[in-house]
């Protein structure tokens, strides 16, 4: 009742104050949020707009997904046209042009022999799909003893049981029982002592990949199905891979016949200046998970790019037998496919991946100018990704970064993200140099304000 009374006094745009109660927001401090909600009504290009019409510069591409910016006319038109033509089509035992065309296009963009795409609806589903394909692959290959999955500390792979099992964030794991059995973790790759204020890939840390050899020695390679890592860990505070780390991981996987999965839900589609981070590092994994920016966040979609070696192994049994007992009602949803095809056109026609690459040094220099501000412990940049670690208040972990995010939105018209003690900025790839300046200027003001 107290919450309702407080909200009655305030305009919430189109939302009746009592309607603030029912929605249980994900990964949100609901009670604090509902006392002073950060409401969004519209979006266009680089901006969100609040119900009362304030422009908010989007510093995080929504949630690392709107890489083409917001409400792009050609993407909106493609979704509308698709809805009017074919609203839904089942992907179990039936097909439609959008799914086939999109899969071919993604395969053409992907490195190496990643020539097949399996579709789902989110990054979490993409991860669980990739893990299941890895396990089933070893079964069809007659090596069903390979069941162990290797993740990494501080990894984020969504919220399915597979994803939180291979993930390495204690708060996402500790409330949910025993998780998947037979999972080990590599050490994370961050060291403030060795890496602070690095632009791009840090020099220190490639040797951490060697821990996979320790795990192999402990369990034997014949029990290990796959290793999954984010090329750049995003949601746990932006941890760029040390120089040579991913290459070394690939070598060790090859030595022991272990599948390597790159979770590119954040890195894919231009965030690091390439279609996929795999390309940036010259490392071809056996599977790539994707989601988010595949259609610039407009319609839920995720998927897994799978190597021909894996796909072909499944295609050997009797022809009228289902090869993989897995899939979702909304796999390759026609609206999501249409949105993705239109989005890939925008990326290509506007050379947005090349743009991200060209802007990388400008963005990095601008963010590094915040070095020396109060409480700034470290700044990391890679592609169009930046992170600032703030010293936390002694009594509450991450409190200062939380306050910075709130003040940025409410007072300065800037959307940023926090994870723990880290502020992350990952703007749409259409950001201009002036807007980079504006973003960094506002960040500086906010950091000083919460000092
Ligand atoms: N994998 C990575 C690397 C992610 O960053 C995320 C989300 O941020 C996910 C998986 C989960 O994606 P979703 O929230 O779409 O389930």
Please give a quick description of this structure:
This protein has 451 residues and is an alpha/beta fold.
- Determine the oligomeric state from the structure: single chain
Discrete helix count: 17
Mean pLDDT equals 95
Number of separate strands: 15
| Terminus-to-terminus distance | 34 Å
CATH homologous superfamily label of the largest domain:
Type I PLP-dependent aspartate aminotransferase-like (Major domain)
* CATH class (first level) name of the largest domain: Alpha Beta
Rg, nearest Å: 22 Å
What does the overall shape look like?
Answer: globular
Cofactor: pyridoxal 5'-phosphate
Protein name: Beta-alanine--pyruvate aminotransferase
InterPro entries: Aminotrans_3, Aminotrans_3_PPA_site, PyrdxlP-dep_Trfase, PyrdxlP-dep_Trfase_major, PyrdxlP-dep_Trfase_small
Keywords: Aminotransferase, Pyridoxal phosphate, Transferase
Describe the structure.
Its cofactor is pyridoxal 5'-phosphate. This is Beta-alanine--pyruvate aminotransferase. It comes from Methylobacterium isbiliense. Keywords: Aminotransferase, Pyridoxal phosphate, Transferase. It holds the Pfam family Aminotran_3. The chain folds into 2 domains: 38-68 and 351-449, Aspartate Aminotransferase, domain 1; 73-349, Type I PLP-dependent aspartate aminotransferase-like (Major domain) (Aspartate Aminotransferase, domain 2, 3-Layer(aba) Sandwich). The protein is globular. By secondary structure, the protein is α/β, with parallel strands linked by helices. α5 runs parallel beside α14 and α16 (399-412) crosses α17 (433-449). A 7-stranded mixed β-sheet has the order 4-10-9-8-7-5-6, with helices on both faces. A 4-stranded mixed β-sheet has the order 1-2-3-13. A 4-stranded antiparallel β-sheet has the order 11-12-15-14, covered by helices on one side. It is 38% helix and 15% strand. The structure holds pyridoxal-5'-phosphate. Pyridoxal-5'-phosphate is lined by residues 122-124, 127, 156-158, 230, 234-235, 263, 265-266, 291, 302.
